Amino acid sequence: MLLAAVLPLLILSLISSSSATPDHHPLRGRWRELRKPSLVDQPAKRVSPPEEQRYRLPTYIVPTHYNLYIESQVHTGNRSFSGQVDINIDIRQPTRTIYVHNRGLTITWNELVKTIDGDSYNETLLYTVDTEREFIIFATRDTLLPGNEHVLRIAFQGELRTDADGFYLSSYLNTTTGTRKYLAATQFQAISARSAFPCFDEPAMKASFSVVIKHHPSYKATSNMPSYVSAGDEDGYVVDYFETTPRMSVYLLAFMVSDFPYIEEGQQRVYARPTSINQTQYALEAGLRILAALDEYTGIPYSDYMPKIDQVALPDFDAGAMENWGLCNYREEYLLYQPGVSTYLTETFITTIIAHEYAHQWFGNVVTNEWWSYLWLNEGFATLYEYMAADLAYPERRYRDLFNVDIVQPVLRSDSSENTRPMTFSRGATFDAIISIFDNVAYSKAGSVLRMFRQVIGIDTWRQIVREHIERSEFGSVNPAALITAMETVTGNASFLPDGIDMEAFVSSWADQAGYPVLEVRRTYAGELILSQDRFYNNKIVNDDTSVWMIPYTLLEQNAPWSVDSLADWQWLTVRAVRIPSAIPDDHWLLANVNQTGYYRVNYDARNWQMLIGALLDDHTTIPMASRSQLVDDAFQLARANRLDMEVALELLSYVRDEREYPPWESVNTALSYLAQRLRGTPDYGLYQLWVDTLIGDVFVGLDVTGVPPSGDASLLDKFLQQLISSWACRMEIESCLADTREALERELTGVEPVHPDVSSVVYCYGLRSAPGSDAFQYLYGKLQASANRAERSLLIDALGCANDPDELDALLLTAIGGELQVNYTPEERYYVLTSVLVSRDGVDALVRFLTDNHPYVETNLGPGILYSLVQSIATRTNTPDEEQMLNELLERLEPALPATVAANVRTTVSRNLAWSSSREGVLVSYFLQRYRPIPV
Question: Where is this site: Transition state stabilizer (predicted)?
Fold first, then answer.
């Protein structure tokens, strides 16, 4: 699964991260967070094993096969469904009780069919319902014994859920006929299969499934496997029979009843609502290329396991995307691509998300984590290969070069908290406890650590490990020991490791410990290096954490030849600190963790930092591109944690005047965005603008803000760089940028020339800000109303949020409520409208006004968690006493609705913001800007 299926938690994540998201393109930041969910301040609190076991199934009964029958009338919008499930169970020790999961279903009858010595016996079982633990506990008259055949038959009734979880109701508006059409789809990960039918709802309880679905003839049923027959029933309905699945976890079962058409090629289909089927061609093409790449890479063709794979674009799918074996589900905007409307960002996201879900077909479906505490074995592999497989399918796009800035660096920032958790971890076996670990640790950290393993072991050897792991554990459920065994088997019992360290110690040091280390590299300039490690925290230097990681590292010396493939001379730090000899000349710089391959930060002594800065300023190409990005990110975050002088970090950032690669600029972008938020409203903000103007000046001069080179003349990373630099130029109010975007928007508004999708985010946002009158705002609002493309709608909402006219902002926010101004928003879009205005102080003020009058609507219709998050978002953007007074007045109005802890956290945030200018960090930044006094180029 791409992300946790709990929207309120995701929204909290988005709000918390928004302060680090540049206002020039909030959509990309939003997508990135949705791809890799990050829960806010979730303490790393474990439950005791007995507490968890209360909710776990006994292991002495396991399912082997399910025959599942479902009957639905969803074509009318009727939420009622009924069915029967026959579960073949294997009794492994004598028992008189059978535990089966159930959530909200009504049991209409049951029987147990026992076959003993060829004779069958039927027994209706008494049962009790444990609602808290979501069990049906069946009791038998006689003791059930191993060796006999047992089939548990249960008939049930239920209602389709309305929260996009389990077996749920969805709908869309047919824009041609004006009628609403309904469909039923599933989302079972992590433990929601039990809301569709009684089952053994744990990932290790693998079984095969035979599915039969009855539905109206105007609709079609789709499931994991192909349908082998479709028969009419006496009542005029149709019954579809599907082939039996391989042995798999129940959360991977999927089915859909809808009127969706599809396109197909080979063994792949893409389904979408009728009015969007013309937007599915790219998903089909990408699916074919990515599956072929993964087939070749693993050496284990997908067709060895499954005969087909479908992709479905769903109108409502809070999970984002889900890897159901043979039937991958996606939120519409994550799969549909409309030429002439969709952007390169949409194309990038669709490609990598398909790669993520297709990677799961091996990592998660063939081989599955045996319990959710090992979720990283599923999601880490999928995160790693979402970029690798996309790169194999489209090597010219260089998706591989996005991994550090999209995955590694963001999770290094979030994983530096005291509240973070280890990769292997459990909070319990309840729905909320399990969903809470679908976080950045399970996805991004695990993907980063696995990439480190791959590089250290060697990419060819790693490929053999992947195949060994899949083949050794196929159709099984695993814990980290299985991966360790595969690694030992292929590498010859871990011969690459240092003496005294085995593979288990190496893997466990990264999987079983929270956080990550900082590698301190101190040169004596007398023939030695002093290397040390301790846990990196974002808010303290000295700590009592005794964790020790098995750190692999590479060293690159000034003037040494290098290439991406040649940097494989790994050394090890396996203790807290060590002194080692060094022959590096004193006047040569030294670079560690080359290309940010290892999952840790690196700090140097002051002299080496200055030599690295000198190298970047003299000829930045002497340092590998990925390492330049790493140096920017490490330096700035080390400075924020008081491990490095902030002036050193800011001097290093200044080299980017000559940088022409996107990844280092994206690392700079994060730093500049943080400083912009801290400095806005202070006397030094003008100096900050001049500094940024200087940094972007040389790059900006060569850019056409509103133009797009002919197809093939600009690489994907060039497009990313163009948007980033253009956005900063407009944000810093460079007149040529504002004039160009204003004119481009005017040309589209008057019908002269449409804005190209790839520059529309910048043009719409800043063209709107600088356009006179309200015509541009009305035009973009009308375009939003007319659009049925979810990705375009999100972009337009973000653009409208860029307005700086108070009346326009007030009107936009009121559309989130509805009434006469109502747009056909989804619930998420209503939330997006409210957060879209946070890109400017004008928008923040408008949100304060809106919440003052309309907070009951937000609390009732979007939920109290949304209200709390919006207030916290306002607090993070409150920098002056006048702004603090506005927020305090809002808090007084909200007092009955806000818990005391939320209000206290808001006030603490504001106090910290107002005190920043006089903090050590604030004073150092001010000193740098005043001393630097840049002159724009």
Answer: 443
CA 843, 341, 331: angle at the middle one, nearest 5?
A: 75
- Output the DSSP codes for 161-217: BSSSSEEEEEEEE-TTT--EEEEEEEE-TTTTGGGTS-B--STT--BEEEEEEEE-T
On the 0-12 / 13-18 / 19+ scale of CB atoms within 10 A, 176 is: exposed
* pLDDT tens profile 158-180: 999 999 999 999 999 887 788 89
Write out the DSSP string of 352-368. Answer: HHHHHHHHHTTBTTTBE
Write the burial class of residue 48 (CB in 10 Å: 0-12 exposed, 13-18 middle, 19+ buried).
Answer: exposed
Tell me how long the chain is. 937
Structure tokens at 394: 């489209």
C-alpha distances out from residue 388 to 365, 384, 385, 439, 463, Å? 19, 6, 4, 21, 12
Question: In the structure encoding, which two tokens stand for residue 82, read together?
Answer: 């009924």
Share above pLDDT 90 across residues of the chain, in percent, rounded to a whole number: 80
Predicted confidence band of residue 254 (pLDDT cuts 50, 70, 90) = very high
The pLDDT of residue 12: 30
Q: Is the dihedral of CA 638, 640, 641, 646 positive or negative?
A: positive
Q: Which residues contact 829 (CB under 8 A, 6 or more apart)?
A: 793, 794, 797, 823
DSSP 243: P
Instruction: Tell whether the model's pLDDT for residue 427 goes beyond 60.
Output: yes
Whole-number pLDDT of residue 541: 62
- Residue 702 pLDDT: 84
Q: Provide the annotated active-site residues.
A: 357
CA dist 503 to 54, 492, 498, 568, Å?
A: 33, 11, 10, 19
Taking each helix axis from N to C terminus, what angle separates 685-701 and 920-932, rounded to the nearest 10 degrees?
Answer: 60
Given a contact cutoff of 8 angstroms between Cβ atoms, the answer to whether 480 and 511 are in contact is yes
Contact 676, 693 (CB under 8 A): no
> What domains appear along the chain, each with residue ranges and CATH number?
56-259 (2.60.40.1730), 261-361 (1.10.390.10), 368-512 (1.10.390.10), 516-645 (2.60.40.1910)
**CA 508/CA 373 separation, integer angstroms:** 14
Cis amide linkage into residue 5, ω under 30° from 0 = no
Say if CB 605 and CB 522 are below 8 A apart.
Answer: yes
| Per-residue tokens: 850 | 């809106």
* Binding site residue list for Zn(2+): 356, 360, 379
Query: Residue 604 belongs to what H/E stretch?
Result: strand 601-604
pTM comes to 0.92
pLDDT band at 767 (very low <50, low <70, confident <90, very high): very high
Count of H-run helices and E-run strands, the chain: 30, 30
Mean pLDDT of the residues in the chain: 90
Question: How far is 755 from 708, CA to CA, in rounded Å?
Answer: 10
Of residues 534 and 2, more confidently modeled: 534
Strand residue runs (E) in 395-516: 477-478
Predicted confidence (pLDDT) per residue in 25-59, tens digit: 333 443 334 433 333 345 566 776 788 899 999 99
Alpha helices in 529-624 (DSSP H): 606-619
